[in-house]
Amino acid sequence: MYSTKPNCYMNTLKLYSMLKVNQKKAKETKYNHTRIILAISATIIAILCMASCATDKSKYHFDSSKDALTSYHVYLSELQKKESLSSDDFVTTISNWSELRDSVYAYISKDSAFYAHTYLSSEFYSIHDSIRTEMFRLAVGQDRTLKDVLRVKKSTSQYNNEEDIKTTFNSAKAFYASLDSLEVFKADKGQTLVLYRKFFSGINDIEFKKLNDLKSVIRTEDRLFRTFLTHINEYSDISLADITKGTEQLCKSVYGYATDGELDAKDVMVYMSMRTNRRLVQNTQSCIESIKRRDKLTDKQQEAYYWMLIQPYIAIDSFGMAMLTPEQERTLLSYADEIQRMEQTHKLGKNHRKLSEMSNLILKLYISGL
């Protein structure tokens, strides 16, 4: 069974981090995307992104580093008093924590003592780890849903208010909306795979020099993918390893051109993230429609469907959440309810983890990265 892997998101975040680092070094220079920057560790990238998120618009203001850390500790004490949180309160609490965390870190990191001594950073991370432990406790204090997962991840994305990508986002949104007017190919499952494999066989010959080159390839691939999904319940006995490999090679090629500076990194990170979001939503939609049609599924197919249904809630990361269109967000919230009803009516099969348990697990995994 085919699934959309989240590898493209990892490449997107690398490119985004490159973009932010270069902007800090010289705002008036063009983006200088080098392989050396790609080697920056994930930890440093996370810290840079965290610091870049705190702005003057923050509602938190401190008089000193001690004051900032005291505020963070007070927040911890308040959390420790809470026995449980409703879903709405949990979303609000996570959002407030993210804003306070970024504000505290941004303030103390400007203090010369932050780098000269370990006290400030040690105290910050000690409080931070304790808060995260409390968030773990509150996350699993009651059964959560996939809707909770989406709301938490969307509302706490550190990229929600990035002004420098809004224009590109709006252009990409219009582009992807235009793809809906292209009908799927009139092909059975065998013909579809032939078309797909022919498409991937020429990927290495394509030069991505301009945004239009990328859009042209995405336009064809999107049509093929939607055609593929019309036969989603028919592939249980067919190996799709080459299709998966072709998809990965496409991503690798696109990101390679961006890394070398031949494609604009901002264009690539937005268009490719929105491409993956679109595919994940389409994948989930196809599974839901197949189950509603009562397509006859093997146990193996049911298991694959289960994972494809919940994949958007697992795989879409912080940047991807910011790249969801309002329509996609509403759709995924609706699908979360639909998937919940399917579990309650025993339409997801028997050999899977309960959605409430999986939702709690996803939230814990997400919180561990905050």
How would you portray this structure in words?
The protein has 17 helices and no strands. It is mainly alpha-helical and 370 residues long. The chain folds into two domains: 13-144, no CATH class; 155-354, no CATH class. The longest helix has 28 residues, at 265-292. Mean pLDDT is 86; it is low at 2-6 and 22-55.
Residue runs with pLDDT of under 50 for 5 or more positions: 2-6, 22-55
Kindly estimate the percentage of residues that lie in beta strands according to DSSP: under 5%
Compute the number of structural domains: 2
- As a whole number of angstroms, the C-alpha radius of gyration is 22 Å
Structural class: mainly alpha
> Could you tell me the mean pLDDT?
86
Global outline: globular
Largest sheet: none
Overall number of strands: 0
Element-by-element helix/strand order? HHHHHHHHHHHHHHHHH
Count of discrete alpha- or pi-helical segments spanning 4 or more residues? 17
Please report the distance between the alpha carbons of the first and last residues. Answer: 32 Å
Helix content: 55-70%
Features:
69% helix; 370 residues
Describe the secondary-structure layout.
Elements: H1 7-25, H2 35-38, H3 42-53, H4 65-80, H5 87-108, H6 112-116, H7 119-139, H8 146-155, H9 166-179, H10 189-201, H11 211-229, H12 241-259, H13 265-292, H14 299-315, H15 318-322, H16 326-344, H17 355-368
Helix pairs in contact: 1-3, 1-12, 1-13, 3-5, 4-5, 4-7, 5-7, 5-8, 7-17, 8-16, 8-17, 9-13, 10-11, 10-12, 11-13, 13-14, 13-16
Concise account of the structure shown:
Helices cover 69% and strands 0% of the residues.
